[in-house]
């Protein structure tokens, strides 16, 4: 598959999200990435259901929702009802990860599992064939604009090897500090989806930046 671009709306203009959503609708972006933070699992709070529902009302592209929250099982159906296409949970936040993945799929969503920067890939060995996405965090979750963690390159290789060895159909998503200087290498190593926040929305021409990332 050709790699996908999923701009992170958290890096957009929060006082005028409609403008940025309409820009993404017209751009070469494939998905819209939405970060949900609870102030407990990560030291920050972001969008709740009313904002997610509003994003969904105006978005014409699939919503790729990344939960940085504890006990995500409580809200799986709510996220489906709010317009989520792909729901990603953190392995570090799920006591019974397989049950959580099953619940996501039962609601008709694609199921993803995220790994914090120093959570080992081998934690996914028992679940890799049951999931649709692996989200590799290339910064510490909770805040945008952080510097890319170089160890991520090796982690992508490890994830690709695990997927190939297991016969899984999961795709690899990378999130954090992605820009035009590191995107090519990420794709070469096996990344299927690039989440870009600051590098898109802080650029002078976000539409052109998305197009350039897509064309790599």
From TrEMBL:
Enzyme class, spelled out: isomerase
Catalytic residues identified in the record: 35, 175
Catalytic activity: D-ribulose 5-phosphate = D-xylulose 5-phosphate
EC number: 5.1.3.1
InterPro entries tied to this protein: Aldolase_TIM (IPR013785), Ribul_P_3_epim (IPR026019), Ribul_P_3_epim-like (IPR000056), RibuloseP-bd_barrel (IPR011060)
A GO CC term assigned to this protein in UniProt: cytoplasm
PANTHER family recorded: RIBULOSE-5-PHOSPHATE-3-EPIMERASE
Protein family (similarity comment): Belongs to the ribulose-phosphate 3-epimerase family.
Name of this chain's protein: Ribulose-phosphate 3-epimerase
Gene name for this UniProt entry: rpe
